[in-house]
Write a structure and sequence with these properties.
Blueprint (H helix, E strand, L loop, with lengths): L11 H12 L16 H16 L3 E4 L5 E5 L9 E5 L13 H17 L2 E2 L3 E5 L13 H6 L5 H5 L9 H7 L15 E7 L4 H5 L3 E7 L1 E10 L3 E2 L11 H17 L6 E10 L5 E2 L2 E10 L2 H22 L2 E10 L2 E2 L2 H14 L3 E6 L4 H5 L5 E6 L15 H19 L1 E2 L1
Parallel strand pairs: 3-5, 3-6, 6-16, 7-15
Antiparallel strand pairs: 1-2, 2-5, 4-17, 7-14, 7-16, 8-12, 8-13, 9-11, 10-12
Length: about 425
């Protein structure tokens, strides 16, 4: 399998201009984007992407979950396509690059191949997966999950947003429900370019993250019940303070995660306190502990220790505690061959690189179930994402897209 020559690179100005043009659709209030899935803005972004793909000579496929597939033909009609892409939907206060860089970086591969008149044995398909963010319709990575057989299509169609609108109905409304069976496509390989969404690459001064694993995730909802009481007139020894119980449990969450350093993490991001009044001792708290690790045995250990420690704390304080597993997925080990293609591409192009474990979920994590898959990451300023202030540089975008180009084209095999 011949590798592309080191002087073959994408057009960074064209890629950047495309990112900025897409960002004009669904602008946020502070310089980012609000282009949530299955909104009118999502439909407009999809139409722009389709126009660009057709201008690049691609045919467009559309499945029943609204996943878009722009295909550049290969020379071998029997060869399975190499897929590349990510998502165009954003958070309500999202940035201009999360997901979008992966889709438009894939489009830039096709444009560059056209510029250079290069043919590949395998077709190359650029994909936009519907509802990766999961902010309007939970869970995240919904459509890639249906593609990979994680969720049923009927279940996905029945998801509702905060206004009670069904996913399936909104997909029909915006006109982006296709007829193609979801998951019927077979892939030779899948590659995804993404901003890191973390601070490591920028802090280390490294151009490229070679993603070897995706963290597994465990969400456990914890309910601690005590007794509402007046904050001023209830003696300290007679209190059954659910809020204090939660605080002591969260100290243990920190200890548990740190005991599996450096890759395990843990915290509670969702917390409800009842009755949430200034002069009432909390009688109940409900919070979700988020544990993540690239090793399943570590996740299982953290879950078990959370339950043990919480029971001990609550028994000593006269509190009741209940647990409910409300979400999670197992760690992902990406395909060794695809990972090597990314690493070799970075070395061939002279970009500094390091192995990374993705702390966030991505479409690649589900597609890895059905095809050889890997990810390449570029830095983002201060590791900030899911925020309108999310920022990358043109040089970082070029480096990531160059590595993506070489890994994809090498895997698709240059002809001639």
């Amino acid at each position: 399998m011949a590798a592309p020559a080191a002087n073959l690179t994408i057009n960074p100005d064209r890629l950047w201009d495309s990112l900025m043009e897409m960002a004009r659709i669904g602008p946020g209030v502070a310089g980012g984007n609000n282009r949530q899935t299955l909104t009118d803005e999502d439909a407009e972004g999809r139409a722009l992407f389709q126009r660009w793909c057709e201008e690049a000579g691609c045919s467009m496929g559309l499945d029943q979950m609204g996943n878009m597939f722009a295909r550049r033909e290969g020379t071998d009609p029997d060869a399975l396509p190499v897929y590349v892409g990510s998502h165009l939907d954003t958070q309500p206060t999202g940035g201009k690059y999360d997901g979008v860089l992966g889709v438009l970086g894939g489009l830039e591969i096709l444009r560059t191949l056209n510029d250079l008149n290069i043919r590949t044995k395998h077709p190359i398909v650029v994909v936009n997966f519907t509802n990766e963010e999961g902010t309007r319709y939970a869970p995240a990575m919904l459509s890639s999950g249906v593609f990979a057989g994680i969720h049923s299509q009927d279940w996905a169609y029945d998801r509702v947003d905060a206004e009670g609108k069904r996913f399936g109905d909104e997909l029909e409304r915006i006109g982006w429900r296709g007829e193609e069976e979801v998951g019927a496509r077979k892939m030779h390989a899948f590659f995804e370019l993404h901003i890191e969404q973390g601070p490591i690459l920028e802090a280390e001064g490294v151009d490229i993250g070679v993603v070897t694993h995706g963290q597994g995730l465990s969400w456990t909802q914890v309910t601690v019940t005590g007794k509402d009481a007046h904050t001023g007139s209830t003696p300290m020894p007679m209190r059954r303070n659910a809020g204090l119980g939660m605080a002591r449990i969260l100290e243990k969450v920190e200890e548990i995660a740190l005991s599996h350093a450096p890759h395990a993490v843990g915290a509670a991001g969702h917390i409800d306190v009842f009755p949430n009044s200034r002069n009432v001792i909390p009688g109940k708290v409900v919070f979700t502990v988020d544990f993540r690790s690239p090793e399943l045995t570590v996740i299982e250990d953290m879950e078990a220790r959370l339950r043990t420690e919480a029971h001990t704390i609550c028994d000593e304080m006269g509190l009741a505690v209940e647990f409910e597993k409300v979400g999670g997925f197992d760690p992902v080990a990406f395909d060794a061959g695809c990972v090597t293609a990314i690493r070799n591409a970075a070395e061939r192009l002279g970009y500094s690189h390091m192995n990374l474990i993705s702390g966030a979920g991505h479409d690649a994590c589900w597609i890895n179930r059905v095809a050889p898959t890997a990810m390449v990451m570029c830095p983002c300023v201060d590791g900030l994402s899911h925020n309108e202030a999310e920022e990358i540089s043109k040089d970082w975008a070029k480096a990531g897209a160059d590595v993506l180009f070489h890994a994809v084209v090498e895997t698709a095999e240059i002809v001639g």
